[in-house]
C-alpha cells in the first residue's frame, strides 16, 4: 500500500508534467511568441526533470526544489515558452513547510537563499540566451508575487500542523492524567474497603475465639450448648470467608471508623443530611434486614456520596429509594440540578469511588445527568454464598 502523502506527491508530479508539456507544446499560455523554441525531445526531458522529482519532495524538499528550479531555468535560457514555473512553485510549498521556521540557521538560511535566487537566475539565463527583458516585467512581477504567496501559504500550513500536533499531545496528556487520577481514586477506595474488611475480619475472629473456647468448656457439661457454639463458629467463619472472597486485598490506612452494618445506619445518615438543610424524600420497598458487612458499608458509602453531591451541586432536594429483595439491595438517589452547573471541584472522584466499590462486590452502579436531574442507581448482591 502506498501512503496517502506519497500518492498525493505522485499525482502532483504527473499533473505538473502534464501542465508543463501542454504549455510548451502550445507555445505559452497567451499569444505564442514567434521567437520561442518549439517543444522537442530536449524540452520534454527538461520538463520531466522539473516535474518528476516532485514525487520525492517530502523526502528531500530542498534537493527536489533545486533540481526543479535548475531544469526550469535551463528551459528559460533555451528560450522555451515557460510562462509559469509549475515545478518550482510546487516544490517551494514543501520547502516553506519544512524550513520556513527551522530553528537551525544552517538549514533555514540556505533554503531561503535557494528559493530567493530563482528569479534572478531565471532573468540571467534569459539574458544570457541573447534575449531582451523588455516586456517581461509584468510576468516577472507575477512570478515574484506567486513565490511570496506560496511561501506564506506553506508557513501557515506549518503553523496549522504544529497547532494540531500540540492539541493532540495535550489531549493525550489529559487522557493519561485522567486515567491516572481514576486509578488513584480507585486505589484509595480499595484501601478504604480493605480497612473495613480488616475490621470485620478481626471482629469475626474474636467471635470465633470466644465461641470456640465456650465449646471446649461446655463439651463435657452441656453438649447442646457446645454444639450451638460450634455452629456459631461455623456461621461466623462462613460469613468471613464470603467477605474476603468479595473484596480485594489492599494496604490498610488509618481513617474514620466504618459505619454500623445495619439498615438503621441509613436512616441516621438521612437524618444528618436533613439537619444540614437538604430536603430528602425517602422511600423503602421490601423488608429492611441486616446485610453482610461489606454490602452494608458499600450501601452506606454510596448513599453518603450521592447525598453529598446533591447538597453541593443540586438545588437543595433529593429523592431516595431503597429496595430490599431476597438477593440484592437497590439504592436510587435522584436530585434536580441547575440548568448551568458550576464547575466541578478539582480532584473529586466520588463517582469513581462509588463505582469501584460496587464493582468489587459484583454489583453495578450507574450515575448520569439527564433532563435536569442527576441520578445514582446501584444494585448490590446481598445473598451470601453457601459452601
| Number of contiguous helices | 11
Proportion of residues in β-strands: 5-15%
What gap, in angstroms, lies between the N and C termini? 60 Å
Order of helices and strands: HHHHHHHHHEHEEHEE
Structural class: alpha+beta
Whole-number mean pLDDT: 77
Q: Could you give the count of β-strands?
A: 5
* Backbone shape: rod-shaped
Description:
This protein has helices at 4-26, 41-51, 61-77, 86-99, 105-116, 118-128, 137-221, 223-246, 264-275, 293-313, 350-360, and strands at 279-285, 317-324, 328-336, 364-370, 373-381. It is built from 11 helices and 5 strands. The chain is rod-shaped. With 387 residues, the chain is α+β, with helices and mostly antiparallel strands. It folds into 3 domains: 4-134, no CATH class; 182-246; 264-381, Heat Shock Protein 90, CATH 3.30.565.10. Residues 248-257 and 342-348 have low confidence and may be disordered. It has a 5-stranded mixed β-sheet with strand order 1-2-3-5-4.
Notable characteristics:
single chain, 387 residues, alpha+beta, Heat Shock Protein 90, 3 domains, five-stranded mixed beta sheet, 11 helices, 62% helix
Topology:
Layout lengths: L3 H23 L14 H11 L9 H17 L8 H14 L5 H12 L1 H11 L8 H85 L1 H24 L17 H12 L3 E7 L7 H21 L3 E8 L3 E9 L13 H11 L3 E7 L2 E9 L6
Parallel strand pairs: 1-2
Antiparallel strand pairs: 2-3, 3-5, 4-5
Amino acid at each position: 500500500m502506498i501512503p496517502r502523502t506519497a500518492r498525493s506527491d505522485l499525482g502532483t508530479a504527473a499533473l505538473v508534467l502534464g501542465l508543463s508539456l501542454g504549455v510548451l507544446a502550445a507555445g505559452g499560455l497567451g499569444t505564442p511568441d514567434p521567437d520561442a523554441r518549439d517543444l522537442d525531445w530536449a524540452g520534454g526531458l527538461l520538463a520531466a526533470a522539473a516535474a518528476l522529482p516532485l514525487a520525492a519532495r517530502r523526502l528531500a524538499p530542498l534537493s527536489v526544489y533545486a533540481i526543479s528550479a535548475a531544469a526550469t531555468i535551463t528551459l528559460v535560457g533555451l528560450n522555451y515558452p515557460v510562462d509559469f514555473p509549475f515545478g518550482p512553485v510546487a516544490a517551494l510549498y514543501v520547502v516553506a513547510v519544512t524550513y520556513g521556521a527551522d530553528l537551525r540557521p544552517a538549514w533555514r538560511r540556505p533554503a531561503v537563499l535557494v528559493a530567493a535566487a530563482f528569479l534572478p537566475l531565471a532573468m540571467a539565463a534569459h539574458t544570457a540566451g541573447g534575449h531582451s527583458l523588455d516586456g517581461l516585467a509584468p510576468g516577472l512581477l507575477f512570478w515574484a508575487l506567486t513565490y511570496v504567496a506560496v511561501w506564506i501559504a506553506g508557513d501557515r500550513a506549518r503553523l496549522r500542523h504544529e497547532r494540531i500536533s500540540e492539541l493532540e499531545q495535550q489531549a493525550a496528556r489529559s487522557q493519561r492524567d485522567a486515567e491516572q487520577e481514576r486509578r488513584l481514586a480507585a486505589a484509595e477506595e480499595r484501601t478504604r474497603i480493605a480497612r473495613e474488611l480488616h475490621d470485620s475480619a478481626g471482629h469475626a475472629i474474636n467471635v470465633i475465639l470466644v465461641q470456640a473456647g465456650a465449646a471446649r468448656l461446655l463439651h463435657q457439661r452441656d453438649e447442646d450448648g457446645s454444639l450451638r457454639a460450634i455452629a456459631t463458629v461455623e456461621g461466623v467463619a462462613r460469613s468471613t470467608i464470603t467477605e474476603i472472597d468479595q473484596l480485594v486485598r489492599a494496604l490498610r490506612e488509618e481513617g474514620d471508623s466504618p459505619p454500623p452494618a445495619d439498615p438503621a445506619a441509613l436512616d441516621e445518615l438521612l437524618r444528618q443530611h436533613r439537619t444540614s438543610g437538604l430536603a430528602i424524600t425517602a422511600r423503602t420497598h421490601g423488608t429492611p434486614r441486616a446485610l453482610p458487612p461489606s454490602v452494608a458499608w458499600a450501601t452506606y458509602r454510596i448513599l453518603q456520596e450521592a447525598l453529598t453531591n446533591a447538597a453541593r451541586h443540586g438545588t437543595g432536594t433529593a429523592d431516595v429509594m431503597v429496595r430490599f429483595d431476597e438477593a440484592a439491595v437497590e439504592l436510587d438517589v435522584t436530585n434536580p440540578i441547575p440548568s448551568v452547573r458550576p464547575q466541578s471541584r478539582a480532584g473529586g472522584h466520588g463517582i469513581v469511588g462509588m463505582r469501584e466499590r460496587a464493582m468489587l462486590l459484583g454489583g453495578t452502579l450507574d450515575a448520569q445527568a439527564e433532563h435536569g436531574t442527576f441520578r445514582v442507581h446501584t444494585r448490590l448482591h446481598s445473598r451470601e454464598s453457601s459452601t
